[in-house]
Amino acid sequence: MEMQEAFGLAHLWAQSDLVIRLVAFVLVVMSVTSWYLILVRVVRQLQARRYDHAVEEFWAASDLQEGLLRLRERAPDSPFEALARQGGAAAEHVRQHAHQQTLGGKLDTDEFVTRALRKSIALSTARLESGLTMLASIGSTAPFVGLFGTVWGIYHALVNISASGMATLDKVAGPVGEALIMTAFGLFVAIPAVLAYNAISRANRLELSELDAFAHDLHAWFSTGSRLAAQPDGAGARERAGKTVVLHATPGAA
Q1: Are 68 and 48 in contact (CB under 8 A)?
Q2: Which of 9, 133, 161, 231 could form a cystine bridge with 236, CB 3.0-4.6 A?
Q3: Is this structure's pTM higher than 0.85?
Q4: From the CB of residue 95, how many other CB atoms can be counted at a distance below 10 Å?
Q5: Domains identified in the chain, total number
Q6: Could you report the per-residue pLDDT of 179-219, keeping only the tens digit for each?
Q7: Residue 51 domain-assigned?
């Protein structure tokens, strides 16, 4: 029992130097940051489950204002609500200035709405990807931070052996234990960050795909006054693929 207490975590921390403690502090900060980002995204994904029903209620509304009100109630501050609001504002702006003899009055409604939808999707994409760079950085660097602690712990062990002239267990076990703990700690920080990054990236791709489909329907509605009719899978895929190029092209390509 005394031997286990002598080489426990408290003992290892007490006999560690400044470098090991700094590595441990950095790993703790990285772990707290990654778990905070993970929890924030989990809460957001739980909220995002309401978006599908909100979009269907939007299309069931009698007019645009009622649809926007339903989106604001069901999915406040969501990418879908922002997309519909921006598209409606663009269409209304063109409608108000269509008869003016100015540069704004000569704008094409279809092009103006397309640019507004594209801008909204770009802003929503930036918000969805917020924090992913940090998660990727933590997942890729945490093992190396732990490895640095491992190398330093082994170096510490060799220094103790050299100073004592004896490779006894009490001179080596502590620093080697530090080295192993730093390695394990680095993996403990990195693995959840990598798994969360992959899961969040997949969820973002699915949500952006739904947002893109909603943008196509909005574009058709603002251009023709009716929602895009359902098509067979093959035809719908070809139609959507062609329109994706329009909505995600650079502004100069429109």
Answers
A1: no
A2: 231
A3: no
A4: 10
A5: 1
A6: 788 889 999 999 999 999 999 999 999 889 988 988 888 88
A7: yes
Which pLDDT value is given to residue 44? 85
Average pLDDT on 104-124 reads 78
> Per-residue b/e over 48-83, b at no fewer than 16 CB within 10 Å?
beebeebbebbeeeeebeebbebbeebbeebbbbbb
- Residue 245 within any structural domain of the chain: yes
Distance CA 146, CA 132 (A): 21
The first and second tokens of residue 78, run together, are 């969501």
Smallest CA-to-CA distance from 176 within 187, 189, 167, 163 is with 167
Q: What is the mean pLDDT of residues 38-58?
A: 83
Q: Which of 18-27, 131-140, 211-220, 225-234 has the lowest mean pLDDT?
A: 225-234
Look up tokens 């760079």; give the residue. Answer: 133
pLDDT of residue 247: 45
**For residue 179, is it within any domain?**
no
CA distance readout (Å), 241 to 113, 217, 223, 237: 19, 14, 18, 6
Angle between helices 169-224 and 233-248 (to 10 degrees): 100
Find the domain containing 97 and state its range: 25-142+190-249
For residue 202, tell me if it sits in a domain: yes
215 close to 84: Cβ distance less than 8 angstroms: no
Please state, as a whole number, how many other Cβ atoms lie within 10 Å of the Cβ of residue 103.
Answer: 8
Residue 37: closest CA among 125, 140, 130: 130
